[in-house]
Specification:
It contains nine helices and ten strands. It has helices spanning 4-13, 67-70, 73-81, 102-111, 166-171, 202-217, 223-238, 246-258, 263-277; strands at 18-22, 26-27, 84-87, 94-99, 116-119, 124-129, 135-139, 142-145, 151-152, 162-163.
């Protein structure tokens, strides 16, 4: 049986950037030198950035094809602790359509052109040639993983890989099913005096989103619960008046994924927070 390190080296040799995943299928957390941006510039959402930390920090941005990095130092030690190998699809100019259940698979078979298919724990990964922006919950049970995201390596799969179709690109242009504007919840009174909703004040809303991003970014432990509590706090303040936009929620999801949360974890935490608040 191949070790995680051996799989990672083989993928890297084929031009696929890799990184180790710990328990929970999430990346290893940022080291002390990179915590709170102490490294002097963490990887941005457009490129790996100036950070030269030898540890696999910064989630997807740590993925590399350099065998000298993958097989030496702290990386070698972490491969021994890893639960899985991940890769950055966009870095390999690939797009993964993550189908999470039987209904999503049935939709893909009706809608998308056949391509290489890899079985997952609950569904399938459909892999196409060509990168695009990643997007969460573009349909029920469907995520897109390409640039600025990572996917688990689950084997070579079956079938010939097709070029990325416009039908998949179009999915990212649609508002995700869990990222939308909500009308006022039933039974919630209007602001006193009948004035404009205070949450629509740009400064008020921007400050709240920025504070939420910071709370997630600075979490050193219990990242799952921190993300959930932060989502709950944002929704309790801004979720009943329709002021949250796709951009606001995408910023929170991006902050959570930079801490190692998966797109599915983010979606689940958001949905659970909405359910708790009755939204």
């Amino acid at each position: 049986m191949k070790t995680h390190l051996r799989i990672a080296l083989e993928l890297a040799a084929a031009g696929v950037p890799v990184l180790p995943l710990r328990a929970g299928k999430v990346p290893f957390g940022n080291c002390r030198d990179c915590a709170k941006n102490a490294c002097g510039g963490r990887p941005t959402m457009k490129s790996p950035g100036p950070c030269s930390c030898p540890a696999p920090c910064h989630a997807w941005a740590a993925a590399t094809t350099d065998p000298g990095v993958i097989a030496s130092g702290i990386w070698r030690r972490l491969w021994g602790q890893a639960q899985a190998v991940a890769y950055h699809p966009g870095g390999a100019r690939l797009t993964v359509v993550d189908l999470d259940d039987a209904d999503a698979i049935a939709w893909a078979r009706r809608t998308l052109p056949p391509t290489r298919t890899v079985a997952t724990t609950r569904g399938e990964h459909w892999i196409y040639q060509g990168p695009m922006r990643s997007a969460n919950a573009v349909r029920p049970g469907v995520d897109i993983k390409s640039t600025m995201a990572y996917a688990r390596w689950l084997g070579d799969g079956a079938g010939a890989m097709a070029p990325l179709p416009d039908d998949v690109r179009a999915l990212a242009l649609k508002e995700p099913v869990t990222v939308q504007r909500w009308p006022p919840a039933a039974g919630v009174p209007a602001p006193a005096g009948g004035g404009e909703c205070r949450h629509r004040t740009p400064v008020y809303l921007e400050r709240g989103i920025a504070m939420a991003e910071q709370r997630i970014t600075e979490a050193r432990s219990a990242v799952h619960s921190t993300v959930y509590r932060t989502f709950l706090a944002v929704l309790s303040t801004h979720g009943r008046c329709g002021c949250l936009t796709e951009n606001h929620i995408a910023r929170l999801f991006t902050a959570a994924q930079a801490k190692g949360e998966t797109a599915r974890h983010c979606t689940d935490a958001w949905t659970n927070a909405r359910t708790t608040l009755g939204l």
